[in-house]
Amino acid sequence: MRTRSAAFLASIFLIGATLLAGCGETTPPPAPAASDASSTEPAKPEPAPTADTTPAGETKPVEPAPSSTEPAAPAAEGKVTYDLTLETAIVWAASVPIGTRKGGWADFTGTIEVENGNFETAKISVEVQMASVFSDAAEITEKMKGDEHFFAPGKYPTSTFKSTSVSKTDTGYDVTGDLTIRDKTKSVVLPVTDLKIDGKSLTCKSTTKLNRHDFGVEYNTTIGDYVIEDLCDLTLDVVAEAK
Description:
Elements: H1 2-24, E1 79-84, E2 89-96, E3 99-105, E4 108-115, E5 118-129, E6 133-135, H2 138-145, E7 158-168, E8 173-181, E9 184-198, E10 201-211, H3 222-226, E11 231-242
Antiparallel strand pairs: 1-4, 1-11, 2-3, 2-11, 3-6, 4-5, 5-7, 7-8, 8-9, 9-10, 10-11
């Protein structure tokens, strides 16, 4: 009886040891296979559909870009007379020791007659009311409106310009004409630039130098007249409309 019990216990002990040995040495699971890095990137969204409804396989025609400027109106045919408008500026400038005095005239009338848009045919006539003179200093304006100095508008109320010829130049045109100030008339040349004849309007610019002594434009004191430069600038910014 004792021998059977010992054999039975030995069998139990052997089975338990075998089970413990199997549980202690477990085989580690295989490492996962390396995957391609590109497969982990998020999917890129598909581009949103555009508003283009052109059927597949057809080419959409290219539309021309819109023009930013309107085409210029052609010059009027035949003889056209343009009147100076109030947008025209007739300006003078004279150098003195303290700098440059500037001014002009506010009241004037004038016409420019052109045939078939050809400025070389132009006939120009301008009349300026000298009492409308102004300057950049009140005391100078007062002297210019009086009859003691400079233009003496009470004695010589108007000044005029009448063209005698027009010639083409590399930069525009030369307008030659008779300029009358204080009843003294001299032939002068006005170089015209930026000429534009567009439909019913005519615009241009001109700047020239005049010797004021040619027209008796003087300050009626020896010292006062001496400090004023003999040559003065006359600038025209012409805006004219067809009748």
